[in-house]
Amino acid sequence: MAKASNIRLADVKKINSELFTLTYGSLVAQLIKDYEDDDEVNKQLEKMGYNVGIRLIEDFLAKSGIGMCADFKETADVISKVGFKMFLGVIPTVSNWSADGKEFSLLFDDNPLTDFVEIPPGHQNLLYSNIICGVLRGALEMVQMRVECRFLRDVLRGDDATELRVKLVELLQDEAPPSDE
Amino acid sequence: MSSTNFFVMVGKKDSPIFQLDLVGTERRGGADSKQKDDHRHLNQFIVHAALDVVEEAMWTTQSMYLKIVDKFNEYYLSAFVTAGHIKFLLLHDTRNDDGIRNFFQEVHELYMRTLLNPFYEPNTPITSTVFQNKVKVLSKRYL
């Protein structure tokens, strides 16, 4: 299985990471100018991430060829070791499992979205990388898991590390497609 | 003997971006500190007067470092112009070409990092204390 995913990973086209970082940066800067309220911007970033996630999951499953995960723990490992590696080139650490095994944390050593970024004073509530929360929520919803993601700590806000908390809310039953009426 | 150094960054339309007063050795005594205050206004005047000279000089050379472009009494003024026509000006009273060139290049790197920050608008003042501290460290190292 490792060989197959390596071959597929080579199909990925490369772009300059600085271009990507700058593009995301202008996106967030423009959102701030338009909405002016940090919480509103956070919400919009999450929504955008959700739209990305519901499409990204198909690409991910096609490229990685991974089948169903046995349990939530395996899901967490796949997200961090394959998913993040494939799309952002980083492998966050999975940690801080809750007692019931339904919540875990992802610890990021570095985040390509935030290279060179300094949040200006007056925007302390801004969650710069909130798009990642949306992506995870959207992607996992397409594989029948409803999760909640939020950033507990963020290096950009002055904390010592970046920590993203993922909580499994429920497993979705297959819903019947909307009827034609 | 102290070395006064006054560092200014000026934007494309002559808008001030950054300003830092650096004095080499500590002076003691009330009279001397009053002299320093007077000098501060004078330093700004000298720098502003030299802006025209820098504008002319930057078209004559291909390199970014313009060495000493102006002299006033005992002060020399060195300049460095970036690709985006941002002028770094250093007012100093001791000659130190190599050190100043290195200082300008390091500040240039710092400036490029600041530009990469999506929240920084080019040609606006740089207010980050991180930037200011880094420039202070660089000035101690090279000047």
Helix content of chain A: 40-55%
Our count of helices of chain A gives 5
Low-confidence stretches of chain B: 26-30
How many beta-strand segments of chain B? Answer: 5
- Name the beta content range of chain B: 25-35%
Q: What composes the largest sheet of chain A?
A: 4 strands, antiparallel
Give the overall shape of chain B, derived from the CA principal axes: globular
Task: State which percent range the strand residues of chain A make up.
Answer: 15-25%
Poorly predicted regions of chain A are 1-5
Can you give a write-up of this model?
With 181 residues, chain A is of the alpha+beta class. Helix content of chain A is 47%, strand content 15%. Chain A has 5 helices and 4 strands. In chain A, helix 2 (17-35) packs antiparallel against helix 3 and helix 3 (38-64) crosses helix 5. In chain A, 26% of the residues are buried. Chain B has 3 helices and 5 strands. A 5-stranded antiparallel beta sheet of chain B has the order 2-1-5-4-3, sandwiched between helices. Residues 26-30 of chain B have low confidence and may be disordered. Chain B has 143 residues and is an alpha+beta fold. In chain B, strand 3 (65-72) and strand 4 (75-81) form a beta hairpin. Chain B has helices at residues 30-58, 97-116, 129-142, and strands at 4-10, 16-23, 65-72, 75-81, 87-92. Chain A binds chain B through residues 18, 21-22, 24-26, 28-29, 32, 115-120, and chain B through 113, 116-120, 128, 130.
